[in-house]
């Protein structure tokens, strides 16, 4: 039985990875920060199958302890301050976790079990102001946020430990990957949650920033398979993991409303752009400049050819299927949260269709 240590196990990626490894008969350890009450997050349904270890990426002693307890054969470093917008507000904390935290984890591996394999969660945000399209492993980096800069350090220190200490260390340069488990702070989940609440009369308007920003979106369940495949390959290397397609935020919004049964129409341009519900003429989407980034990343589009040819990895869930999965989950969640009186009131106002 192999053992694996996952940092960030209660998050979206950590939960899907834990499920995958458990299905392959791994002993799974999860690093969690000490709180007054442990929040199991997305692994609540499998918490009895995981051994949790208290630790923090900013505390190297706790990471050394985690390695000694788990004696992990594979370490997946998924923990991060992962909100791009927050990284401008908390640049030092972002650097301590997303940059120095990676070094702390690598040092713990080097000290306790240097033969362990290591996966680092890198990000397409490192490409930032893209130097070529599509982006691949050899594309020059140009991060446009403190988050992207910190992640770039983590990426390069992983490569450095691979070359300096012969540690089996890989970085997955993952493009945007979402799911129904994504936090509401992320734009995709913000959209599907808001559309569901608009559908059931609990929200009037969804406010967003740059509607023209283009992203390469896939489903997290597919992307964690790539993480595992990297550590099963005979040689450590870095891989771009992406769908190879790009879509605007506006396209995501369109599909979310479509699958919710609401037909919308766009009017205006720039900061004055709005989407109206064609049935009743109400504004349901508006642009709010406060959601603009200080330095915008306009286009991200990955080339996953290396991962496909070397690892045999494929993304199976399409963009359209991803949006449909997410909106259906939020529609069911919001509907089930309504009281009988709220449901009747919304139905009477023709906010929902039964």
Brief write-up:
It comes from Caloramator quimbayensis. This protein has helices at residues 12-23, 60-70, 84-89, 91-112, 146-165, 187-199, 220-232, 249-259, 305-311, 319-337, 340-348; strands at 3-7, 27-32, 50-54, 74-77, 117-123, 169-174, 177-178, 206-208, 214-215, 218-219, 238-241, 247-248, 264-267, 274-277, 283-287. Helices cover 40% and strands 17% of the residues.
CATH superfamily (homologous) name of the largest domain: NAD(P)-binding Rossmann-like Domain
Largest sheet: 7 strands, parallel
The structure class reads alpha/beta
Poorly predicted runs? 350-354
What is the tally of helical segments? 11
- Roughly what is the average pLDDT, rounded to an integer? 94
Q: Calculate Rg over CA atoms.
A: 21 Å
CATH topology of the largest domain: Rossmann fold
> CA-to-CA gap between the ends?
50 Å
Strand percentage? 15-25%
Q: Based on DSSP secondary structure assignment, what is the total number of beta strands?
A: 15
CATH arch. level architecture of the largest domain: 3-Layer(aba) Sandwich
CATH class of the largest domain: Alpha Beta
> Order of strands across the biggest sheet?
3-2-1-4-5-6-11
- Helix fraction bin: 40-55%
Describe the structure.
With 354 residues, this protein is of the alpha/beta class. It folds into two domains: 3-179 and 218-241, 3-Layer(aba) Sandwich (Rossmann fold); 187-214 and 247-299 and 317-352, UDP-galactose 4-epimerase, domain 1 (Alpha-Beta Complex). The chain is built from eleven helices and 15 strands. The strands form four sheets. Strands 3-2-1-4-5-6-11 form a seven-stranded parallel sheet, sandwiched between helices. The protein has a four-stranded mixed sheet with strand order 8-15-14-13. Strands 7-10 form a two-stranded parallel ribbon. Helix 4 (91-112) runs parallel beside helix 5 and helix 8 (249-259) crosses helix 10 (319-337). The radius of gyration is 21 Å and the shape is globular. It starts with a strand and ends in a 6-residue tail after the last helix. Its cofactor is NADP(+). It comes from Caloramator quimbayensis. Catalyzes the conversion of GDP-D-mannose to GDP-4-dehydro-6-deoxy-D-mannose.
């Amino acid at each position: 039985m192999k053992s694996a240590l996952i940092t960030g196990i209660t998050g979206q990626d950590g939960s899907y990875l834990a499920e995958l490894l458990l299905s392959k008969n791994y002993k799974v350890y999860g690093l969690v920060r000490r709180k007054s009450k442990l929040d199991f997050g997305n692994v609540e349904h499998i918490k009895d199958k995981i051994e949790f270890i208290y630790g923090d990426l900013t505390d190297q002693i706790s990471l050394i302890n985690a390695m000694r307890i788990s004696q992990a054969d594979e370490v997946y470093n998924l923990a991060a301050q992962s909100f791009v917008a927050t990284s401008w507000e908390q640049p030092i904390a972002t650097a301590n976790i997303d940059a120095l935290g990676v070094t702390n984890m690598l040092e713990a591996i080097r000290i306790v079990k240097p033969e362990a394999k290591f996966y680092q969660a890198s990000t397409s945000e490192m490409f930032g102001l893209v130097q070529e399209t599509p982006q691949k492993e050899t594309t020059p980096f140009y991060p446009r946020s403190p988050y992207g800069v910190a992640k770039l350090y983590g990426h390069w220190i992983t490569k450095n430990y691979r070359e300096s200490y012969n540690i089996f260390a890989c970085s997955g340069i993952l493009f945007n990957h979402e799911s129904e488990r994504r936090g509401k702070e992320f734009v995709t989940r913000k959209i599907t949650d808001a559309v569901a609440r608009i559908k059931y009369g609990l929200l009037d308007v969804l406010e967003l920033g740059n509607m023209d920003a283009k992203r390469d979106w896939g489903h997290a369940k597919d992307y964690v398979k790539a993480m595992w495949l990297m550590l099963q390959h005979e040689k450590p290397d870095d891989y771009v993991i992406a769908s190879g397609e790009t879509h605007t935020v506006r396209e995501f919004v369109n599909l979310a409303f479509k699958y919710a049964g609401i037909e919308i129409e766009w009017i205006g341009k720039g900061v004055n752009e709005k989407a109206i519900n064609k049935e009743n003429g109400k504004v349901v989407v508006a642009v709010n400049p406060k959601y603009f980034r200080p330095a915008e990343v306009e286009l991200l589009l990955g080339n996953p050819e290396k991962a496909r040819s070397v690892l045999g990895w494929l993304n199976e869930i399409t963009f359209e299927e991803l949006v449909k999965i997410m909106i259906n989950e939020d529609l069911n969640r919001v509907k089930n949260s309504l009281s009988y009186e709220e449901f009747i009131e919304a139905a009477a106002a023709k906010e929902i269709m039964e």
